[in-house]
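Can't attach files on this board, so I'm pasting raw text. These are the components:
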Amino acid sequence: MDDLSPQSRDLIAVRDSRDRAAFGRLFDHFAPRLKSMMLRGGLRDGSADDVVQDVMLAVWHKAGQFDPHRADAAGWIYGIARNRRIDLARRRPLAQPDDMPEIESMEPDAAQILALQQEVRHLSEALARLPLEQAEALRAAYFDDTPQSRISEATGLPLGTIKSRIRLGLERLRHELRKIAP
Amino acid sequence: MTSIRHHISDDMLDAYRDGSVPHGFGVVIAAHLSLCDQCRARQEAQDMVGGAFLQRAEGASLRPDARERMMAALDLPQPSPPPRASGVFPAAVMRELGGRPPRWRMLGGGIRQQILSADSDGSLRLLYIPPGKAVPEHGHHGRELTLVLQGSFSDSAGSFHRGDVETANAEVDHQPLAGDGPPCICLAATDAPLRFHALVPRLLQPIFRI
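---
Top answer:
Structure tokens for the assembled complex are below.
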């Protein structure tokens, strides 16, 4: 398990032994980043703090579903934050897929976990190499999580351009990923 | 799970991801994701991209008492969990059913339905079709997503089994026919009221809200 990111290791400690110190470290690492995500998504300062608290509380309660074969801590926590932000903007909450079965009983498969960690690292390296324009479009879609129609409004670019830019960005990412991990 | 052959379109999955789908479509997509490992993995892979941006983000400073409040909140009782999956119904459907089994209404010909929601955003309903029976032929003003939860049906677009989704638009007139085997139970959502061709169903439409 040494190959896990420190955050994934802390999340597993929270999952398996309700480790408060580990949760505190996760809070220190992710809460300021989550707040920045919420602010970029258009929330005001005070409500952003409240949403971050909600998200981290959900991390504490849902930790039993964290499966390092399928996600790293950052991606898993991002998914929770994204759903929370979407529901703030909807009249009725967006329906969610079934919870994944709790995985306590499963033997961890070190090779698969390592492969996922490597993919995440390669993805991150590939993001860093993208041309600025594509990186911005991807960040708007994934981190600011602006619906594509609103990205178009904000930038004055036609929707088709935005969509093709995101697609190009993802294709380029995949291409970069193939170069480092053929 | 690998036997699912009819998936949610990319555009529809994008709209689900950014939260812009109407309620009924959201329930059908969530139910499909519960049954389809392939689509679910695609969704989760996108979260990894979001996670990479989260890792790289510069933090914003929190309220001074944020950490203290957070640690205190860990001991508060958890809100009661929403209904879980039961039988052929994924959790998203059980939630619409209020955690209870369906309460069917007869539509004639052995066909039953339960309306789960209907408003200006469209409708969401469960349908129960005995083997060999057909749903009355209908077209759509908007789009319709139909997910099979039990049994199967077929129409001009092909044959659909548990987990498969049919996406029909305004141009499609279709007459789904339930396959042999157990009765076909499906979850159907529209983003506009349906229109039926035969006179009687059209008269019944306001009554049944279909």
